[in-house]
Each structure stands twice: as structure tokens, then as C-alpha cells.
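Entry details:
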Amino acid sequence: EISRKVLGDAFGADPKVIIGLIRQGLAALKDEREFSLKVPPELVSLVEGQVPTLRREFGARSMDVVGDPEVAGGAIVSTPHGYVDVTIESQIRSIAIALAEARKKVLGVETA
């Protein structure tokens, strides 16, 4: 819980980290051309300022930025066909799952 707080505060406030997370989400949806970016309301103007660059970089036809108070420390990148959660919380969850799986392998515990 402490690591979530520290990482969320440290990375959530860094514009380069937020834009990097959005790039990661866009790259995961590379075949799409219409995007919606849900970000914390306080980051809407920052992300909107990067939209022209991101559209060119990923060949997007459209890219809307929506402020969502439920999104903290990152973004949710959506398309008409799905979404990618690139919030700090989802990154921490993925790391925790990977560590748990690695621990099981080291200890010789079979996974279901």
C-alpha cells in the first residue's frame, strides 16, 4: 500500500511519465485510428497539448481527451474495439502478478 502511494504521487505528477504511459497504451492498440484518452481532470490540458504530436506519431484520425476523476496516475486509452489501462495502479498490479508467478516458480508451486 505504501509503494502505491509513493509511486502514484511521484509518477502521477510527472508529465513525461503520463505521456509515456499514454504512448505505451497507444502502441498496444497500434492497428486502431480512433482514440479516447481518459485522464485525471487536472491533466486534461497537458495531454491536449500533446495530442497533435501523438496523432502524428500513431497515425490517429481522432484523439479525444476526457477528464475522469476515477482515473488516477495515468490514463485509460480507449478505441471503438477495446481499451488499455495504463494507470500507475494497473502497472503495480501487473508487477505484483508477475512477482507472484515468479515466486511460485522459484518455490516449485504449480499454477492452475
Remarks:
- The mean pLDDT is 85.
- The two ends are 27 Å apart (CA to CA).
- Strands lie at 34-39, 62-67, 76-79, 82-85.
- The longest strand covers residues 34-39.
